[in-house]
Amino acid sequence: MIQIDKLRKVYRSRGRAVTAVDDVDLTVGEGEIFGVLGRSGAGKSTLLRCVNLLERPDSGRIEVDGQDLLALSGGELRRARQRIGMIHQHFGLLSSRTVAGNVAFPLEVMGVPRGERAARVAELLDLVGLTDHARAYPAQISGGQKQRVGIARALAGRPKVLLSDEATSALDPETTASILELLRDLNRRLGLTVLLITHEMDVVKRICDGAAIMRDGRFVESGPVRDLLLRPGSELARDLFPLPAPDPRPGTTVADVTFEGDSADRPFVSSLARTYAIDVNILGGAVEEVGGTRVGRLRVELPGDPETNAAQLAHLRDAGLTVEVHGRSEVEAAR
Ligand SMILES: Nc1ncnc2c1ncn2[C@@H]1O[C@H](COP(=O)(O)OP(=O)(O)OP(=O)(O)O)[C@@H](O)[C@H]1O
User: Fold this and answer.
1) What ipTM does this complex have?
2) What digits encode the pLDDT tens for the residues 69-93?
3) Ligand 1: centre distance to CA 144 (Å)
4) How much distance in Å is there from the Cα of 165 to the middle of ligand 1?
5) Which is deepest, 70, 192, 199, 330, by most CB within 10 Å?
6) At what angle do helices 143-154 and 99-110 cross, to 10 degrees?
């Protein structure tokens, strides 16, 4: 649904050039929720704003719903943009208009006749659970309700794609959870494709099917969230399951064992200890709910260096677990 190839955007001001987006490739499939995670200044907003051409890239290709956006004429681009909704951190509501008036606004701009407008506004307010607040003004509703208005307004043109620019960053954790749930619900009910940018791991953990970590304008890793979490060395996994830098003692094996779904329900530590009659020391770890599945990572220490634990490590891998070994061999330790 969204296909971006070799996207590059350079800002030039006062003789200085900042490469905000540097050769980014991105594919978001239809009906997928994809999150771009990164710190302030990583280039996330610029990337997002390039997807509907609020920002024009220096080079690259942007295809949304089969249309090459950079090849469209003015009128065609306006129509294509109506099919790409956008929500923002600070909602951007018109304070002089009611909730219903705010949702009606884009319909007026699109030239939807008055008679049709009222029915469509009612439908949109129902979709985001705000029917009872139609006559309220933005100052009279909570932050979460304001974002619901923002979402209803973004859906006015029946978009296939929703771009979310830090939509939950100004909200408390409970409200964040309810807005993320709403996005997931709309994604399922309407088949909406969502591309979101965030600096919150929690957002990725709760609703994203795919994710990328962005730094200095580049994607440092990208893929389905599940694959990233199981990939040894993944930064996403490290952020989700923070463990200190491994410092194995000589003659021991320290391994990070990642488990998910079915494998999360099996008692692998006691099975390992029983099968090989060894003491398994647990050094740390955590279990999280990711996209409705339990995923966890446990750091364990086994007696003996990694060579002597080959069978034990194979036992874990055979059980469907991902195993990343940090332990040093006696030979390495002696160097
Ligand atoms: N209009 C602009 N002119 C010049 N430089 C800009 C402009 N907009 C962004 N930048 C620079 O481009 C880089 C990426 O900024 P961008 O806002 O895309 O990052 P971000 O990851 O979204 O961060 P934040 O969450 O703080 O907005 C930064 O170094 C920023 O200073």
Assistant:
1) 0.96
2) 999 998 999 989 989 999 999 999 9
3) 26
4) 13
5) 192
6) 20
The answer, yes or no, to whether any atom of ligand 1 lies below 6 A from the CB of 38, is yes
List of residues 6+ apart from 223 with CB closer than 8 A = 210, 211, 212, 231
Type of residue at 169: S
pTM for this model (two decimals): 0.89
Residue 140 φ then ψ, to 5°: -100, 0
